[in-house]
Design brief:
By secondary structure, the chain is an all-alpha fold. The chain is built from 20 helices and no strands. The chain has two domains: 210 residues, no CATH class; 256 residues, no CATH class.
Length: 500
Amino acid sequence: MGLGSTLLKGSFIRTTNVFLQIAAAFVMTPYIVHSLGDRMYGIWVLVGTFFGYYGLLDFGLSTAVTRYISRAVGTDDKKEINEVVNTSIILYSIVGIVVIVVSILAMYFSQWFIESANEVDLFRKIVAMLGLSMAVGFPVRVFGGVLDANLRYDLSCYASITKLIVANTVIIFLLKSGFGILALSSASFLAGMLEYSLIVMFAKKTCPFIQLRRTFFNRSIVKQLFSYSGKSFVAQLGDLLRFRVDAIVIAGFLNAGMVTYYSIGARFVEYFGMIMISATGMMGPVFSQYEGRGDYEGIRERFLEVTHLSVILSVFIGASIMFYSKWFIARWMGPGYESSYYVCVILCISSTIALMQTSGIGLLYGISKHHYYAIANTCEGILNLILSLILVRYYGIYGVALGTMIEMLLFKLFIQPMFICRAIELSVYRYYFKTIFVTTIKSLLPLLLYFYAIKDLVKAEYSSIIIFGFIQSLLFALITYTFILDKTKKQQIRSVLKHV
């Protein structure tokens, strides 16, 4: 298969994996919430938020590793690949040691901010398991970068699916055995270790010439990696402010129980993002390979192609979430979670516009122009925090969601398109109007007509939602294939279907 067909196949496999993850989460979440209770589940969400900050210790290195391995793959430079891999593993091993030290300190000082002695002991056990898992996971990120750089997304997905099966099996067993919240951390630890082992094995199979030797450590690679990762680190700080402070603001100004209601609504948007990243967010290594060969016209053409597909998919998913989630939440979680639906709609409006441009972020990272994104993302995060702190006082969890929506609309509508086009010398009119706006209108109109036709027929039952959603998918796929996609995309889709 050609590059386009390979990417479409990879997109299909990655998206299938995400759908399996989402399906498992939708099945397991009510079971976990009702097993633990709103308070303990809210505490688990807060623990997850706490460990999310461990991601800062990555310092943006994972993006740098994938970027430079991808460039070396584009030029078939095996020596450089070995140097990047070995140098990165040493750097990540140091990070893993830091994670262990931080976890030990968190366990030691936990009694200062947790009153109950039982909850202190519980918190320490969770931190010990998750901290060790994250410490091991940092060096493994290098091998994940090897798979991404070689576009072996199928192998990454196999490891992820294995983790999914093992984790949920362990959770069910341990919850039934009365382990409570420890079931979640134990399952995460065991399944994570298995996934790490598979990723390392797959990476070695993909690039058998990779050798782990100290002689491949290269100081100039260190400088190169940190020069790139510094900008990625700033962007990660922005992501933390955009996506990781909401739970803390709600817990601080309202209560931990309200975190559950917010997280249920935000979960739909989180899965939306996962699907879009899986389907269209894998272009970074491709752009790096093109950049390594000096093919900038190829970069522009591939970028516009994947953006076109991103718009179609994001409109379809975003509109569907806003239409069906009211009935789905009512059936999924039961009565009393109506507020989660409104949180979902608020966040989904802006996320749809943002996720149309997923490939633009991968482009900036792929050609080392992500300093634009780092600056904008940090400004977004700061604005999100300020607006959330103000609006939560007046509108509760809706105010926190509005804070995220306002900053996202501002930056994704008016700022991000400009600096993406500047980075690759692309016409704003061609990108913003012809590719995004026109495609949005073409995709949205048939969906709105369908929703209007069935709005009085849908019920809060899984069978009703699945049937109408399935019919919608078939009709939309037919309309898209017939009227929206060009001949090249149709040929690539046919090629992928032959090999699936």
